[in-house]
Amino acid sequence: MLKKRVLAVIAALSVTALTACSSAEAHNVSSVEATGPVAAAEKPNIVFVLTDDLATNLVEYMPTVKAMQEEGASFENYYVSNSLCCPSRSTIFTGMYPHNTEVMTNTAATGGGYYMFKGRQLDQNTFATDLQKVGYRTAMMGKYMNEYQAGTPKNPGTNNPVGWDEWALAGSGYAGFNYQLNQNGEVKRYGDAPEDYMTDVMSARGQDFIKRAAADGQPFMLELAPFTPHKPYIPAPRHENLYNDLKAPRTASYGKQNKNAPTWLASQKLTKSRIAKMDEQYRQRVRTVLSIDEMVADIRAQLRASGVEDNTYIVFSSDNGYHMGEHSLISGKMTAFRTDVQVPLIVVGPEVPAGAKVEDMASNIDLRSTFGDLAGAAVPTTVDGTSLAPLWSGGSLDRKYVLVEHKGMDVDKMDPDTGIFRSPIPPDYAAIRTTEWLYIKYNNGQREYYDLLKDPLELNNIAGRVSKTRIRQLDTKLRQIRECSGQDDCGTAQASGAKTPAQTATPSAPAPGTTAEPTATSPVAAGLPTTE
Length: 532
Hints:
alpha/beta, Alkaline Phosphatase, subunit A, ten-stranded mixed sheet, glycoprotein, N-acetylglucosamine-6-sulfatase activity, hydrolase, Sulfatase
């Protein structure tokens, strides 16, 4: 638990109406009306913004989110446990790794989706149910789970989410228009008018929820989950002509082929047509996040107007990242590379130091415990993660490893993550990552090992040069984490741990005509730690 809790908010005698943002009139929010004082409460409010496929390289186009980085804490080593929407969201809700939720894909046909989540009764035991038990009013707007359906006007209420007092959820809001929302058990259809743009509808409903909950003096948890910047990358009409000359970032790994790549990754090339396509996709992705940033600005303005900003945590993140040209891969995700699994985690709120950089290894398994800690809610010991709240106050977490899991699958036409320019899908794998190295083991027996100290771009696979003894140690550690269950078990498996036998690697001579890489005659030379 946090050592200090935020004391009662001093009621203001009056609150001046605030302008939501410069383009507010265009997106149906001209100003935020001051609603007056809020009944004092020791429990803080929580606003959780969970974006869809937002890579770290998009934050620079989001001034409000960038301001949050300056005002609060940023987690520099935050990773998701699966770089696919539904498995990651299942982990966020439950605090459990995919091997424990058993939600491994987006659709029931391939071993995942909403019906797997609900069928295993995972919806009965989430951070939302935790907070409800200690008096929180909960609300969720936007995307819930892949394959979730809002219902029909003639058959409403069949897919009402457990743990939420209010909701406005869509089955498929990816296009931004012409969708239907399950709004507290009633289904409403939205059209193609500018004011129907889904992110704006979410923003307006979220502001209304805050206004009412604050006026009632009840602590609240609000999750805002836009369907963007997920493809088909549809921006709000007011943004569709911006950044016309922008191109996908030409990072140092853009268009580069990995050395000693596994079969699925080998021989990837970026053609002119694919490069042009990705540049257009990137422009669209940037345009879509502009409305998300405006939503965050409007929500923050409403918190101020309602007199609860000083007692509210805002958490901003994404369910997974996205690659666009790195490793010569066309647009997509599902890999264990940094582009796909490292996402923003930014927190502002009471007692969060401005500009704090948290270097500890963190995962989306930790969000449920973090929310519970902030709210003073008990979290089951079956949860795999732990609270991150002490970290922004100078605490530390004894964790060396984070796990990434993935189930390879055939293309399911019902899965929104398929498309014409579809990135190759890796076969089944599990991976462990530290600040020093990345190890990936595929079910077909192939492996990847990257020395992140010497190869931060993850381009040179040196698995073939690591000793058999070291490989056995890595496999043992990987298996230990893949089989862990519960906070104690997973905490032990991911901790620095006891020393293991000395590690050695077999040196190998470079092939003729190639440049010699650092030899792996010692753990230090290979970038390997000397202990587990």
